C-alpha cells in the first residue's frame, strides 16, 4: 500500500506520515520546498517527496501514480474560499483516475451542522472556514471511492506552542490570557499526533469505511487549560474574560474573536464516549504538554 499525504511537511500530514511509516506504508507527497529540513526528514523515512503544488496537475499525477490511499487535508484561504474546494476536488478527481481506493479526509468540527453554531453566517469568518470543507465532505462521500472516512478534529493542542500561541491574546507576553470564551465554555482539544494515528488506522481498517468521526481527547475550560499550563511551565498564568460589550466591539474588526465565539458552541459536537467505543485512546492536554516539554518551555520563556 502507498498513500498520497496532503501537507506531509505540516502538522496533520506530518503526523499521519509518521504512523504510516511505522506501518510499513510508503508515503508520497508534493511540496513547494523539496529541499527543506522537513522534506529531507520525510525522505529519510522512505517517503517520495517531489516539487509541486495543488494547482500543478502534472506534479499531482506524478505523485499519485500507484497510490492506493489518500489523506486529504486542505488549508483554508479566507481571501478566496472557493480555492479550497477547487484544489480539493481536483485532487480527489486525479486520485480517482490514478486508482486510489481509500480516502481519509480531515475536515473540522461542526462542518456537518454549522447551523448549530449561534454566530454562524455563510459569509462570515466561520462560514468561510466551514462551508468549503462541507463541500469537500460531500465530494468524498459521493465520488465512488471503495472506502472513505471523514475525521473532524477539534482545537489543536499545538496552538499553545509558538508561533500559533499568539492567537491567545496576552497569554505568553503578559501571563494573562484575554479571551472571548466564558468561564463555562468547554473546548474540545485534540493532539494532532492523534489525528495522524487515527487517520493511519482508518486508511488500513475497513471498519472505518463510511464513518464520520469527531476527534477530541478531552473537553477543558479555560481555567483547566491554564492550570495545566501553569504546571507545565512554572509560570504564574491567569485568564481574563472579555465582557459582551468588549466582544461586540472587537468582533467587528478581529476575526479571531468571531472564531472564539463560534468555539463557545463546539463542545456539543464532541462525543468522547463514542470515541472510546472505537478503541481510540486519544491523548490529554497534560500528556501533550509533557511530551512537548522542550517546545513548551521555549514558547513560554520570556
* Overall pLDDT score: 96
Q: What is the general shape?
A: globular
How many helical elements? 12
Distance between the termini: 47 Å
Strand content: 15-25%
Q: Based on the structure, what is the oligomeric state of the protein chains?
A: single chain
Strands side by side in the biggest sheet: 3-2-1-4-5-6-10
Low-pLDDT segments? none
Gyration radius over CA: 19 Å
How much helix is in the residues? 40-55%
Structural class: alpha/beta
Count of DSSP strands? 12
- How would you spell out the order of helices and strands? EHEHEHEHEHEEEEHEEHEHHHHH
Largest sheet: 7 strands, parallel
GO molecular function, one term: oxidoreductase activity
InterPro entries: NAD(P)-bd_dom_sf, NmrA-like, NmrA-like_oxidored
Domain NmrA-like: 3-275
Keywords: NADP, Oxidoreductase
Amino acid at each position: 500500500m502507498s498513500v498520497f499525504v496532503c501537507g506531509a511537511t505540516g502538522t496533520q500530514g506530518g503526523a499521519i506520515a509518521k504512523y504510516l511509516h511505522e506501518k510499513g506504508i510508503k508515503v508520497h507527497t508534493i511540496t513547494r520546498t523539496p529541499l527543506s529540513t522537513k522534506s529531507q526528514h520525510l525522505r529519510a523515512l522512505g517517503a517520495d517527496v517531489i516539487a509541486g503544488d495543488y494547482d500543478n496537475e502534472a506534479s499531482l499525477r506524478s505523485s499519485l501514480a500507484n497510490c492506493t490511499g489518500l489523506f486529504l487535508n486542505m488549508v483554508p484561504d479566507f481571501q478566496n474560499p472557493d480555492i479550497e474546494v477547487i484544489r480539493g476536488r481536483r485532487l480527489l478527481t486525479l486520485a480517482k483516475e490514478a486508482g486510489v481506493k481509500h480516502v481519509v479526509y480531515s475536515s473540522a468540527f461542526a462542518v456537518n451542522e454549522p447551523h448549530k453554531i449561534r454566530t454562524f453566517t455563510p459569509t462570515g469568518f466561520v462560514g468561510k472556514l466551514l462551508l468549503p470543507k462541507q463541500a469537500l465532505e460531500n465530494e468524498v462521500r459521493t465520488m465512488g471511492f471503495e472506502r472513505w472516512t471523514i475525521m473532524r478534529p477539534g482545537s489543536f493542542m499545538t496552538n499553545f506552542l509558538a508561533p500559533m500561541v499568539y492567537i491567545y491574546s496576552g497569554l505568553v507576553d503578559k501571563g494573562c490570557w484575554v479571551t472571548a470564551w466564558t468561564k463555562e465554555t468547554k473546548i474540545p482539544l485534540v493532539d494532532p499526533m492523534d489525528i495522524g494515528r487515527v487517520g493511519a488506522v482508518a486508511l488500513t481498517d475497513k471498519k472505518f469505511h463510511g464513518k464520520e468521526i469527531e476527534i477530541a481527547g478531552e473537553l477543558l475550560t479555560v481555567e483547566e487549560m491554564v492550570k495545566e499550563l501553569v504546571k507545565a511551565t512554572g509560570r504564574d498564568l491567569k485568564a481574563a474574560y472579555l465582557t459582551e460589550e468588549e466582544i461586540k466591539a472587537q468582533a467587528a474588526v478581529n476575526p479571531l474573536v468571531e472564531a472564539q465565539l463560534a468555539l463557545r458552541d463546539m463542545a456539543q459536537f464532541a462525543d468522547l464516549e463514542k470515541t472510546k467505543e472505537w478503541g481510540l485512546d486519544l491523548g490529554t492536554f497534560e500528556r501533550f504538554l509533557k511530551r512537548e516539554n522542550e517546545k513548551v518551555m521555549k514558547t513560554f520563556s520570556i
